[in-house]
Amino acid sequence: MPLSETIPQMDSSTPSAKATPLQAPAILNFVTAAESVDEERDPSPIRQYLSTCGNGAFADKTFASVMLICALSIFAIVLFIFTILVARSRPSLAQFGFGFFTRSAWDPVSGDFGALPFIFGTLATSLLALAMAVPLALGVAIFLSELCPAKLRAPISFLTELLAAIPSVVYGLWAVFVLVPIMRDQLGPFLYKILGWTGFFEGSNFGVGLLTASIILAIMILPIISSITRDIMQAVPTSQREAVLALGATRWEMIRTGVLRNARIGIVGAIILGLGRALGETMAVTMVIGNHPDISKSLFAPGYTLASVIANEFSEATGDMYLSALIEIGLALFIVTIIVNAIARALVWAVTRGAPARVH
Amino acid sequence: MSANPIQNPTPNTEDQGQLRPPMNFQTRRMRANSIWRYVVNNLMTGLAVLSTVLVVAPLVAILVYLIYKGASSLNLDFFTHIPAPVGEVGGGMANSIVGSAIVLVLASSMGIPVGIAAGVYLAEYGRGKTLAMAIRFTADVLNGIPSIVMGIAAYSLIVMRQMHFSAFSGGVALAIMMVPTITRTTEEMLATVPHSIREAALGLGVPKWRTVVSVSLRTASPGIITGCMLAFARVAGETAPLLFTAFGNQFWSFKLNEPIAALPLQIYVYAISPYDEWHRLAWAGALVLILMIMVSVTLVRIYAGRGVLKGAS
Fold this sequence. Notes:
heterodimer, A: mainly alpha, MetI-like fold, 2 domains, two-stranded antiparallel sheet, 15 helices, 2 strands, B: mainly alpha, 11 helices
């Protein structure tokens, strides 16, 4: 049998394989031999091996369905979180209805709950943080994608990525011991002197409050917005930039008309993504916002956000109604962030279609 | 960049036989305009540079302050002792470090397989399908859901039923947070594997599942490991989902169905406490946490920077 002898030789590639002049014909032989069923030979080692394997259809189908189940589990997770939150907040949903979100009472003793102060706190801190972070983030993104010398690009991107990797509780720690004293002793009095007449900087300033929370939030969402914006700006084709430059535009005009205008939908998406992050940010805000359910015009006043009321009161909530009111706040947070994120993702995808979305 | 980019182009008069007055590009208005453009250009460039400085400076300040405060409060006791009672000097966070490790191993062992498998489905089986598109979108949205909501979900599912806080429920909450990140990176990395090597494997008669496991996943493995490490680093610092699942513990605990200490939780509790000794421990804990996360992120960058597809292309 030339066949069963040549195959192992080829595999081990010993010198004798080279010496066999019949190598090429043997392969042809093998093909014909494999097809002819009638021949009364011993099956080749490969055929023997393959016949023990089966055709793999069962393994293939099992594998594919396991992968599918894991992928579907992502749907399941979202659905499951939604149903369990609705189920657990039923007492509160039944008692207060939609009025829960428009009432400002928060009295665990008498069991009277309303979420308006928390909604106000969340919106105020998030929007203020966006107002501070967006111009800076755009500047960083423009610098990184259009102006930066190649040598500086990697270190600065690395730094901003590190900024994103620092845990929320560490930001909170820093804010409690560094930002709050600065706020209380320097920045706060300064703002009162300059902008006190607007009425936004009134009342006693203890260093903790809406403004401090907004500043720490702004620092935290900056890297997210700037890195997504940079990615989107880099997705704008170079030909756009060249075309604008060829018309005699200055570099800023090139950035404005060639890059920012093309990327504007994606940039809006990045900003909304930052908003989503700011809405749900818990630990750092809880540590510096003062935790008092109050609606006040002054930014020095303590506030409370949806996430921080859960963080603070959940584990000591007594009574079903109290607990279910807190879970209903969680449900509201869940629904709002899902909507915000869905809009943002859709916008970002619209721009970077084709390019895979980055994970942040 | 100075006055005007187009200065008096010589009109092509010879062809036409008759003289035309040369166009004047140097009117006062145009000169003012070009100076204005020059100023705006430099102003905006300056603003971009300024904002980068404004962003990088606080980060450097935070890191330097953290390292300074942390390093000056870190000692060996931190790694070998459990928290001391209020009023006593000393103590450490040994139980929190071990507790964090237990919860994270638990979370990784649940989150990583599911995440990778979902990524495999998206990249290898679901290309171009509407279902895959929907799953991808859901994963991205899930990625943005606040971590505290995961905590409530795990609480409602496990803690409410068992009637006590547990390490296991904390692991579940963190695992849910890991899945979408890992899914999306796995999918991205698999998408960069060239089709030709898949076809080569299939052409040899290798079953599809074997192709996926030994060819696609293996080629993309550095990138997938990167994704897993990033997800790990992200959940390692999470506090909010552990507040009412793992709950924290002042003593040693190794059981999965009991409250367990975790480093971020302990930092939080100590940071908002009124005792200086506890503040010191909080800074030390923050430094240890940051170092753990930074080392893993940096390792990942070095590892991933070597080229994901060296072996393939």
